[in-house]
Recover the amino acids of this structure.
């Protein structure tokens, strides 16, 4: 496979990328908006993303999408490629293989963790990791049982070791959309929140000071019942406790008004980062860097919003019209400080 690469991606250090053990490592979550290959999967509803489908999803468009996704990952690292990248809306392992082996990420030595879900459209979540920094121990994809026994994306849980020997748990989520209305679809997200709460509670039961990072596209807001009540992710970061979850994105969104997704002129924070209190106390060997959580909103990811003024994410399609952009979501990032010795 030959891809047309973006010159600006090939920045210094991508090819010769040996980690010099910096203290700060970036973690990123990104809904890439329908990263499909061009091959028909008879077990899913992927026909619109075929060369002869309604979107005329050709190989050239697919390769361009891979390159643009790689461009976002490189740029979001702002000088050092992200250690972890949680991805939503990827079709299968083939697109992950293409992304890490046949795009400008091919020299970055990313690995990936992924399992096929029962989602009707065939979109899944996945986790990219820098092999030189994060050492996976195990991972699993947990089913979410929706009302009416309907299928949806799994919750991906991976855990591994960091350069300082600490264990880090990572959850990648893509909860059910608001299609059909917020109230009508809310039980689906409540079910996902309950499942995630069970999983994190089981980790805390074994290790009260566990390091947990939760991210993805929740299709709900930080104050929504699913996040603030069922998952019980606190909005106030002022007094973190070890056994508890805290929403990093709320304060950024509330302070700046910048969100990850724009709908009808409103910037919402559907994509979020939630962490365990141990990462916020400032006493452990692995810590969230204060105020490092943000939406990555580089100019190239945006286009003018002619309807509601300002700017909006430059997406791949607008309806069924090919727009040649990146995604309808913006990535969220946070920096992790890893203390490498106990001086």
């Amino acid at each position: 496979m030959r891809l047309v690469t973006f010159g600006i991606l090939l920045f210094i250090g991508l090819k010769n990328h040996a980690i010099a053990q910096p203290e700060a490592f970036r973690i990123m979550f990104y809904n890439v908006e329908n990263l499909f290959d061009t091959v028909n999967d008879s077990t899913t509803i992927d026909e619109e993303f075929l060369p002869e489908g309604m979107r005329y999803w050709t190989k050239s468009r697919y390769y361009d999408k891979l390159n643009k996704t790689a461009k976002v990952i490189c740029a979001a690292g702002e000088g050092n490629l992200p250690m972890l990248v949680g991805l939503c809306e990827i079709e299968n392992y083939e697109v992950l293989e293409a992304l890490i082996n046949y795009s400008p990420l091919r020299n970055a030595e990313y690995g990936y963790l992924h399992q096929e879900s029962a989602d009707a459209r065939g979109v899944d979540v996945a986790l990219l990791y820098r092999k030189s920094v994060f050492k996976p121990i195990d991972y699993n994809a947990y089913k979410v049982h929706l009302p009416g026994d309907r299928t949806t994306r799994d919750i991906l849980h991976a855990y591994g070791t960091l350069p300082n020997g600490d264990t880090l748990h990572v959850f990648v989520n893509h909860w059910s959309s608001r299609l059909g209305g917020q109230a009508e679809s809310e039980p689906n997200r409540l079910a996902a929140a309950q499942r995630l709460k069970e999983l994190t509670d089981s980790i805390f039961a074994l290790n009260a000071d566990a390091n947990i990072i939760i991210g993805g596209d929740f299709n709900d807001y930080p104050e929504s019942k699913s996040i603030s009540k069922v998952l019980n992710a606190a909005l106030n970061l002022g007094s973190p406790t070890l056994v508890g979850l805290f929403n990093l994105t709320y304060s950024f969104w509330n302070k700046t008004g910048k969100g990850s997704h724009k709908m009808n002129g409103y910037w919402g924070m559907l994509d979020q980062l939630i962490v365990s209190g141990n990462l916020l106390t400032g006493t452990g060997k692995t810590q969230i860097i204060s105020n490092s959580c943000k939406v990555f909103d580089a100019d190239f990811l945006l286009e003018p919003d002619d309807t509601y003024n300002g700017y909006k994410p430059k997406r791949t399609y607008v309806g069924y019209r090919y727009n040649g952009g990146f995604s309808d979501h913006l990535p969220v990032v946070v920096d992790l400080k890893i203390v490498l010795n106990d001086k």
In short: The chain is about 20% helix and 30% strand. The first strand starts at residue 24 and ends at 35. The two ends are 49 Å apart (CA to CA).
